[in-house]
């Protein structure tokens, strides 16, 4: 009896803490009625004549308590449903925020690439034309070498500018799609032949919405650069396959690998680009799994929904 009275008192005192939540008020009322039933049973011990049948009181109080508890639980179920809905809205909002940030970055990249190509590119070409117009036959050998070297540097500057512009906003990706852009990028990256790269896919020539293509291009190029800089592999393989409702990517290298938990704890993941990869995958509502250990290479499996 004392336990039920104590439970009823605690439940009632918590009503204000719950901001007078209906479900808690109903449950508290149930506790109070159960405590009242125990008090009634105890009081009948001192009655000479029972005005009301103890069995009848217990029956009706039991029915009322059960009814209050049922209504309270129904309200609690609504609260849980509301929490699930809020969690889903939070997830959607986070995905939209990440997507908006990444889209803003890509727009800034495109603007910078366009300004470099349309602004600085013609200036470098003009400088080269002006230097090339000089008559090297009437110039002494020392100055002739200076002019020739200047032309070479101008050529290198133009090529570098094109590479930077293409990296900021890859024109192959826009014009021809993901697979061709990746093949071109990997061919340039592995032209020295020290690393063997293979790619297998069933999406040759197929186009997807641009946010998916540009994010996947950035993810894979980040993985390739990470492997070269940190993993020192001899073999890299990339598989991209379209399934009925998703795009599945599997990336493997036989490099040095690393301790993932240690990397995450030290915060080195940002330097290795894993945080950028995670953000881009999350912005597309995708999922990924990394498998790596020191001396055992690196692999990542990515699944992106096709909306």
Features:
alpha+beta; Heat Shock Protein 90; 2 domains; 5 strands; elongated
Annotate the secondary structure layout.
Blueprint: H1 2-13, H2 22-43, H3 54-132, H4 141-168, H5 171-176, H6 178-189, E1 196-201, H7 210-231, E2 235-242, E3 246-253, H8 260-266, H9 269-272, H10 274-283, E4 287-292, E5 298-305
Helix pairs in contact: 1-2, 2-3, 3-4, 3-10, 6-7, 7-10
Summarize the structure.
This protein is of the alpha+beta class. It is built from 10 helices and 5 strands.
Could you characterize what this model shows?
The mean pLDDT is 77. The chain is elongated and about 125 Å long. Helix content is 66%, strand content 12%. Helix 2 runs antiparallel to helix 3, helix 3 runs antiparallel to helix 4 and helix 7 (210-231) runs antiparallel to helix 10. The protein folds into 2 domains: 2-94, no CATH class; 170-307, Histidine kinase-like ATPase, C-terminal domain (Heat Shock Protein 90). A 5-stranded mixed beta sheet has the order 1-2-3-5-4, covered by helices on one side. The chain has 10 helices and 5 strands, in the order ααααααβαββαααββ. With 307 residues, the protein is an alpha+beta fold. The chain has helices at residues 2-13, 22-43, 54-132, 141-168, 171-176, 178-189, 210-231, 260-266, 269-272, 274-283; strands at 196-201, 235-242, 246-253, 287-292, 298-305. The longest helix has 79 residues, at 54-132.
């Amino acid at each position: 009896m004392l336990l039920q009275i104590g439970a009823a008192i605690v439940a009632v005192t918590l009503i204000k803490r719950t901001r007078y939540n209906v479900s808690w008020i109903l449950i508290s009322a149930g506790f109070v009625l159960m405590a009242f039933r125990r008090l009634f049973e105890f009081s009948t011990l001192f009655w000479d004549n029972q005005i009301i049948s103890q069995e009848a009181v217990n029956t009706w109080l039991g029915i009322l308590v059960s009814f209050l508890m049922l209504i309270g639980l129904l309200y609690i179920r609504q609260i849980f449903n509301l929490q699930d809905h809020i969690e889903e809205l939070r997830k959607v909002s986070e995905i939209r925020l990440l997507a908006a940030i990444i889209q803003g970055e890509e727009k800034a990249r495109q603007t910078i690439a366009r300004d470099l190509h349309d602004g600085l590119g013609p200036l470098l070409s003009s400088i080269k034309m002006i230097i090339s117009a000089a008559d090297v036959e009437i110039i002494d050998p020392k100055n002739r070498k200076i002019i020739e070297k200047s032309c070479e540097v101008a050529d290198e500057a133009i090529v570098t500018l094109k590479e930077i512009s293409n990296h900021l906003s890859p024109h192959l990706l826009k014009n021809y799609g993901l697979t061709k852009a990746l093949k071109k990028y990997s061919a340039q990256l592995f032209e020295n032949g020290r690393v063997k790269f293979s790619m297998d896919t069933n999406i040759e020539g197929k186009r997807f919405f641009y946010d998916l293509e540009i994010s996947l291009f950035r993810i894979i190029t980040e993985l390739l650069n990470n492997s070269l800089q940190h993993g020192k592999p001899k073999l890299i393989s990339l598989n991209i396959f379209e399934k009925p409702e998703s795009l599945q990517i599997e990336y493997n290298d036989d490099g040095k690998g690393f301790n993932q938990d240690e990397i995450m704890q030290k915060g080195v993941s940002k330097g290795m680009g894993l945080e950028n990869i995670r953000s881009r995958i999350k912005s597309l509502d995708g999922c990924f799994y990394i498998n790596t250990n020191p001396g055992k290479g690196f692999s990542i499996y990515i699944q992106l929904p096709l909306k």
